[in-house]
Amino acid sequence: MGETRPDMPPRDEPLRGIPIFLGAIALFSVSDALAKVLGQTLPAVEIAWLRYVVFLGLALMPLALRGGVPRSRSPGLQALRGLGVAGSAIFFITALQHLPLAEATAINFISPVLVTALAALLLAERIGWRRWGALAVGVIGMLVIVRPGAAAFEPAALLPVLSSACWAGAVIVTRRMAGVDPPATTLLWTAGTGFVAISLLLPLGVRWPTPGELGLGLLIGAISSVAQWLIVLAYRLAPASTLAPFSYVQLISSGLLGLVLFGALPDRWTLLGAAIVAASGLYTAHRERVRARG
Question: Residues near 260 by Cβ (< 8 Å), separated by ≥ 6?
């Protein structure tokens, strides 16, 4: 899942924005699949660190061209946001080491539901009964996939939930500091905070990578960073309410990659739960559009 905060007001050019958005979704699926491959030999923290090496390098490039380090007017919130994004990455990469790609991706789509709940609790946003109903349906869909208490339940299924919770927290912090800092400052703080935090965790699980593993880790970072840039570009060209439903294409692309690369076919419970979660998210996006118009 990528950053969805645009750095310019969106324009109404959906025929340009939607293909770019779908390209970003495809790249995120490829990045996740490669992370699962690399996770067979490297610890999740190390994979996340390699991603952040590329992420931080790209975030520093504009500074090198402009010759200055932007200051934040809210460093505490920026650091908290960066920790949320980094936590989301670590938990999800760890989940990929234990779960099929399609299942981990489907559970991770509970994040819009968590954002809605946290917005009501922490930001005092008014949430109508329709959106609360959609939230409940999304939780039901997640439970269908995870199946707690069933014989097939895996504790690792909770990792994508933790990843979604971290991401939802980062989104809430982003909303809280809206307009405080320019996007380039937020990007740098996100990259820098995450890099420092994950670097501190490296001693807990790290081994010297082979040249092939190092190259693959840096490739994952490059692909995910390009996908982030495409997401920002897409949101310049089309409103969020237009693009949000297309994010669920990742359920299909991740499922296909999981089948092709790992021979993992989603079971009927994963498919059913993913459909329920997607329906919940689509309805929530619809209500967001209605609120925006109102």
Answer: none
